[in-house]
Amino acid sequence: MLNNADTMLQVLDRPVKKVPALQGLTVCNAFFENSTRTRTSFELAARRMSADVLTFAAGSSSVSKGESLRDTVEVLTAYKVDAYVVRHHAAGAAHLVARYSGKPVINAGDGRRAHPTQALLDAYTVRQEYGSLEGKKIAIIGDVRHSRVARSNAELLPKLGAEVVLCGPATLLPEGLAGMPGVRLTTDAKDAVRGAHAVMALRLQQERMSGGYLASLQEYADHYQVNERLMQEAESGAIVLHPGPMNRDLEISSEAADGPRSRILKQVENGQAVRMSVLYHLLVGRD
Ligand code: CP
């Protein structure tokens, strides 16, 4: 899928950014939780390959009247949807949509569990920089506890040969992740970043915190903010990543987010190509 994303980037560089690969197929973007990057990039990815796109936003739907996930999916499937892209606040929701619809489903983020296409685009962005992930150290710093991005990256990046170091205050660093192959946990940000080739800041997900996780935001920023001072510990050409959305000057300084090391907008750009590749793989090219 990462190799095919190279081809998709070439398509996106053409004056006419469209291919007929998914002509006649309908992709439903079913978003039960807010999104900017994932929703828009999946929508564009499907349109770039000539699919029809049905965008379903739960907030303006009959879900707000109490309609169940099952009934909602059965209604949408009756329109002859060929595949779903699903974001939901509950872990496992994408599996339920697959069960209720009998259609291919791409998980676009479920609760704190997984965000696989984000991990793919992160891997793609590091690979674009270095040619390979083999032997690369990737530090992921911040609210690991609530992060589906951290979990998916911890699963994917070691499979591609990288070492992953997850870092944050002890209250935001679940020990259950320690046993994953190729993954190390630390509460020391300098230790995490030392010799790293890529440093990813994670958003503090205050909407998922009911209190007691942090003494103060200022104290958090003092110890864990990804900024130029912390980046001094990394490899000289190390890049800065953030899956977005960012709390600027909290988990990442504006200087680091906008500076020459930043590949944050490159992640966004690559997201469209990677998601085109995923849709193609799922609907056309698996064999
Ligand atoms: N990274 C990410 O999933 O961003 P959105 O919530 O804007 O889709």
What strand line-up does the widest sheet have?
A: 7-6-5-8-9
Structural class: alpha/beta
CATH fold-level topology of the largest domain: Rossmann fold
Query: From the alpha-carbon coordinates, what is the Rg to the nearest angstrom?
Result: 19 Å
- Sheet bearing the most strands, described? 5 strands, parallel
Q: Which residues sit in consecutive blocks of at least 5 with pLDDT less than 50? A: none
User: What proportion strand?
Assistant: 15-25%
Mind telling me the CATH superfamily name of the largest domain? Aspartate/ornithine carbamoyltransferase
On the 0 to 100 scale, the average pLDDT is 96
CATH architecture of the largest domain, please? 3-Layer(aba) Sandwich
Q: Report helical residue fraction.
A: 25-40%
> Which shape, going by the Cα principal axes?
globular
The CATH C-level name of the largest domain is Alpha Beta
Annotation, overall tally of beta strands: 9
Bound molecules: phosphoric acid mono(formamide)ester
Domains, number? 2
Could you tell me how far the N terminus lies from the C terminus, measured between alpha carbons in angstroms?
Answer: 12 Å
Taken in chain order, the helices and strands follow as: HEHEHEHEHEHEEHEHHEHH
